[in-house]
Amino acid sequence: MRRLAFLMRPGWIALGLVVIAFTYLCFTVLAPWQLGKNTKTSRENRQIDHSLNTPPVPLTTLLPQQDSSAPDSQWRRVTTTGHYLPGGQVVARLRVVAGDQAFEVLAPFAVDDGPTVLVDRGFVRPEPGSHVPAFARPPEQTVTITGRLRDSEPVVPGKKPFTRDGFRQVYSINTGQISALTGVPLTGSYLQLVEDQPGGLGLLGVPHLDSGPFLSYGIQWISFGILAPIGLGYFVYAEMRARRRETPVAKPADKPMSVDEKLADRYGRRR
């Protein structure tokens, strides 16, 4: 027990707590975070690949009702006929397209005999001072459009919609927030126009099919979580060995001599 008493010193206690906390974070936060991103990216890559190799389907097959959404069909190409509602137009700010800042122009689209869906018409570049430039209005007549289904984005915390340059502006494409802002009911998923569509602006492409480093990062955090306690155990073992070498070995006590040994020793010396 004396050899292990050094573990109760404040320095070793602090080191043990740090290792325990680090291991806990590796297995419960850091590794799941990276593995979750890998799962999301892999899922999106499969959806994009399916979209590129599948012909468009009618929008109402995936969004039949006003409260419909299609998270399992993101990026799927759909086609529909209806008309734009320019009065509900909104601009999404602080977007990045091809490495440069952009606005994305959003407008509700009333589907004939179907729901109203939010349409991302494409992007425009900001003017100096981050002002919204002039851009073409969407057509007023009935048109047929083709686009890709997209999932509604989460609302950016602390960033509320506002009006500037005559346009209502938002920080994310969240159909619920935009519906409340414009008063126009919208489906849960929205539509991103493909090339050469009525009402289209700057074309928004699809992401590259790349899974990224998230899987390897997740495995690394798991490895770190395993190695940290092993490393602590090795340091404890090395410290114990060092202390064992430094501890002086007690010499055995002299064995008392018997009477015969004392006599032999005495007379032996006289001779």
From TrEMBL:
Coiled coil: none annotated. The chain crosses the membrane at residues 12-33, 214-237. Residues 40-73, 246-271 are annotated as: Disordered. It comes from the Bacteria. It is a multi-pass membrane protein. Pfam families: SURF1. Keywords: Cell membrane, Membrane, Transmembrane, Transmembrane helix. CDD domains: SURF1. It is found in: Cell membrane; Membrane. GO terms for cellular component: plasma membrane. Belongs to the SURF1 family. This is SURF1-like protein. The lineage of its organism: Bacteria, Bacillati, Actinomycetota, Actinomycetes, Mycobacteriales.
